[in-house]
Each structure stands twice: as structure tokens, then as C-alpha cells.
């Protein structure tokens, strides 16, 4: 979540995409993995936190094109658009778990809960926090989540020699876990479902997102794009016009992509690799 690092990453990616596109294209390695309908690459559109603009702006764009997204939710935001989230689940969008507390490293002072950061909690605390969201989702949304996204992409509890990974906990509780701000896509024959790579789509134009896909797609990659708000382009807002253009591009069979939810693609890969 550190904004300067992220901005730099986006800028670097954009620069390298524009300067190296031709080279990248030449170096694309064709491997054997194929997706449904002969697609060579896969993309999932994912959104974190259950922000209101996802219900108000994002889901109507997906519905217009009849495509499904994966939404990793926090109960406190779901409550603000409960009927909208129920309808989204009924319409086939995937809802995943994003914890209750949204606890990240305590370096994000504004994300601390009761003044705690991940450095100060243990696995038992986190398990309870995650299971509370699953219980909420079952009761309020009639959904049993199979997918999880790590808040801020952080995968640890504790400090120094006492640090423990919570990836094994996610592997126990869910089929998949997605991180954030990775610089790679997921190789279908190799990737670990408990730590799926996620890439930013917030703050980018359609041309920039397409450049990112071109750069990451070699070896039949599954690229998981992640956003927060949906509206006018911003650091934590996926641009609504870019999203619309991206879906049109991904749905065109000549571009070689399969666009589906995280759980659909993970299930397909598990069966076929
Ligand atoms: Zn989040």
C-alpha cells in the first residue's frame, strides 16, 4: 500500500510496456496449457473491500456485458449496500472473504484496529477475524466463500523471529488466496492457489492495462487484476471507461483471453494441469 512505491511501479510498468512491447511480443513462449474455447490466456477482474461504488458503478458495467467478477468483501461495507450485494451474488458474481478487521501492517496507522497491526496479533486472532466474515457471508448473503484476498497483500503476523505466515491458514480455509501489487501473472502449471499474484488496475487507462496484459501474458498466464473504487480514474479507483473498454477487449475471441471469476479459473486449472 505504500503509495510512492506503487506509483513508481505503475510508472515503470507503463514505461517498460511502451518501450519493450515489440521485444516482449517476440519473446512470447508458447506452452501447452489452453483454457476453454481455445483461449491462450485467462483474466479475472477482482475488486476489494466491497466499496459502495462497486455496487453503484462497477457491477452495472459487468452486467451490461454479461461478465462475472470476484469481489472480496468486508462486512462493514457490505452492510451499506446489502441488497445490492445479495443481488450480485444471485446473478453469479463471486463473493470472497477479505477479513473483518482488514488488518494490515501497523505502518498504515489508519488501518489499525484497536491500535493493532499485523505485527501485534497471532494466528488464532486472525483465524477468528476471518471466520467471522465467513459466518456473516453465510448468514446475510447465503454465500460460502471459497476465495480470499489478503488485505494490503500482507501474509504475515508477528515481528522478526516470531513472524508466522498466515498462508497455511488460508490454504486450510479457502480454495484460493490473492495477494496484491505483484509483478507477475500466474503460470497455470505452477502457481500456488494460496498465494495467487494480483496486479493493480486502479488508476490506469485502458491502453495501460492492455500494455500490462501484453507484458504479463506469456506462458498462458492467468492474470488477476485488482481494483478498489470504480469511477473516475484515481490511485485507488478503477476507471469506469477503462473497465468498459477492457471487457470489450477481453470478450473478443481474437485476443485469446478467457474472462472468468477466480474460483472458476482455479477450478479449471486444478482439473487440467
Ligand atoms: Zn482491502
Describe this entry's structure for a reader:
By secondary structure, this protein is of the alpha/beta class. The protein has one domain (37-272): TIM Barrel (Alpha-Beta Barrel), CATH 3.20.20.370. It has nine helices and twelve strands. It has helices at 3-26, 52-64, 75-78, 82-90, 123-141, 167-173, 206-216, 240-251, 262-272, and strands spanning 41-49, 70-73, 94-97, 147-149, 156-157, 164-165, 176-178, 199-200, 222-227, 229-231, 237-239, 257-259. The strands form four sheets. Strands 1, 2, 3, 8, 9 and 12 form a six-stranded parallel sheet that branches. Strands 4-7 form a two-stranded parallel ribbon. Helix 2 links the parallel strand 1 (41-49) and strand 2 (70-73). Helix 1 (3-26) crosses helix 7, helix 2 (52-64) packs parallel to helix 8 (240-251) and helix 7 crosses helix 8. The longest helix is centred in the N-terminal third of the chain and has 24 residues, at 3-26. The radius of gyration is 18 Å and the shape is globular. Bound molecules: zinc ion. Zinc ion (ZN) binds at residues 48-49, 98, 102, 151.
Amino acid at each position: 500500500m505504500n503509495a510512492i512505491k506503487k506509483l513508481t511501479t505503475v510508472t515503470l510498468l507503463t514505461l517498460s510496456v511502451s518501450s519493450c512491447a515489440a521485444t516482449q511480443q517476440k519473446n512470447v513462449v508458447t506452452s501447452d496449457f489452453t483454457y476453454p474455447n481455445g483461449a491462450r490466456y485467462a483474466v479475472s477482474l477482482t475488486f476489494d473491500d466491497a466499496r459502495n461504488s462497486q455496487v453503484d458503478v462497477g457491477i452495472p458495467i459487468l452486467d451490461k456485458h454479461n461478465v462475472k467478477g470476484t469481489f472480496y468483501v468486508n462486512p462493514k461495507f457490505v452492510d451499506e449496500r446489502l441488497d445490492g450485494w445479495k443481488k450480485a451474488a444471485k446473478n453469479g458474481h463471486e463473493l470472497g472473504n477479505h477479513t473483518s478487521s482488514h488488518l494490515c501492517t501497523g505502518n498504515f496507522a489508519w488501518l489499525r484496529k484497536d491500535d493493532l497491526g499485523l505485527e501485534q496479533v497471532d494466528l488464532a486472532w486472525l483465524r477468528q477475524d476471518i471466520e467471522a466474515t465467513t459466518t456473516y457471508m453465510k448468514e446475510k448473503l447465503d454465500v460460502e466463500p471459497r476465495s480470499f484476498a489478503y488485505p494490503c497483500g500482507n501474509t504475515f503476523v508477528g515481528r522478526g523471529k516470531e513472524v508466522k505466515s498466515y498462508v497455511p491458514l488460508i490454504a486450510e480455509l479457502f480454495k484460493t488466496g490473492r495477494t496484491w501489487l505483484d509483478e507477475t501473472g500466474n503460470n497455470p502449471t505452477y502457481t500456488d492457489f494460496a498465494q495467487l499474484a494480483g496486479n493493480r488496475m486502479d488508476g490506469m487507462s485502458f491502453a495501460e492495462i492492455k500494455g500490462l496484459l501484453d507484458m504479463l501474458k506469456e506462458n498462458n498466464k492467468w492474470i488477476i487484476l485488482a481494483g478498489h473504487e470504480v469511477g473516475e480514474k484515481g490511485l485507488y479507483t478503477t476507471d469506469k471507461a477503462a473497465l468498459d473498454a477492457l471487457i470489450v477487449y477481453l470478450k473478443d475471441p481474437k485476443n485469446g483471453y478467457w474472462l472468468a471469476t477466480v474460483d472458476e479459473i482455479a477450478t479449471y486449472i486444478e482439473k487440467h494441469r
